[in-house]
Amino acid sequence: MPVFRNHSYAAFLFDMDGTLLDSSAVVDRVWGSWAERHGVDAATLLAKVHGVRSEDTIRRFAPATADVAKENQWILEAELKDVDGVVAMDGIHAFIEALDPGKWAIVTSAPRALAEVRLRAVNLPIPEVMITGEDVQRGKPDPQGFLLGAQRLGVSIGECLVFEDSPAGVAAAKAAGAQVAIVGGLVPGNEGNFVLANYSA
């Protein structure tokens, strides 16, 4: 069983962006450009985009006349071409290498193609179980993705530890009934949860 901070869990469920790797440089470029094209305040959008499916962000911020599928494809194509500045989180390679491949999964809001591109860009393995934005009907903060990840690993979600960095992701993990370890500084008021600077702690 995987162990973190001297506690054993049935499995680990990892968000990807901001948790396994930092893709914020790409997010800022691509979504900043999209916001400018549509007359959306970039700072407001970028404060809300983390951990959420692209299509859900587009529905929230795009003009009512926008073609969501077309805009979503534009975002995907732009992000697939851009891995400049995508870097692994400190300590994550050794942390992942020590895990049983059948005891961890990725639950990300990204499409699978984008997840694979970013994982390969930082030399992280593609796990046996990976839940992506296409696998769920409702994205984070809905718990569906984490529940599905635990189910495919064959474990109880209540015995899983989720590693997350965004408010939407933390909300989804808590709603699912998992324990949560928070990575980075995007989530305010995270008392009662682990706070990680990196994976060497």
Produce the secondary structure layout.
Elements: E1 3-4, E2 7-8, E3 11-14, E4 21-22, H1 24-38, H2 42-46, H3 54-61, H4 68-80, E5 87-88, H5 92-97, E6 104-107, H6 112-121, E7 129-131, H7 144-153, E8 160-164, H8 167-176, E9 179-183, E10 194-196
Parallel strand pairs: 3-6, 3-8, 6-7, 8-9, 9-10
Antiparallel strand pairs: 1-2, 4-5
Helix pairs in contact: 3-4
Structural class: alpha/beta
Low-confidence stretches: none
Strand content: 15-25%
Roughly how much helix do the residues carry, as a percent range? 25-40%
Q: Mean of residue pLDDT?
A: 91
CATH homologous superfamily designation of the largest domain: HAD superfamily/HAD-like
Q: What is the N-to-C order of secondary-structure elements (H for helix, E for strand)? A: EEEEHHHHEHEHEHEHEE
Q: Separation of termini? A: 18 Å
Radius of gyration based on Cα positions: 16 Å
CATH architecture of the largest domain: 3-Layer(aba) Sandwich
CATH topology of the largest domain: Rossmann fold
Q: Which strand order does the major sheet show?
A: 7-6-3-8-9-10
| Main sheet record | 6 strands, parallel
- Overall number of structural domains: 2
**How many helical elements?**
8
Shape: globular
Give the C-level CATH assignment of the largest domain.
Answer: Alpha Beta
Total beta strand runs: 10
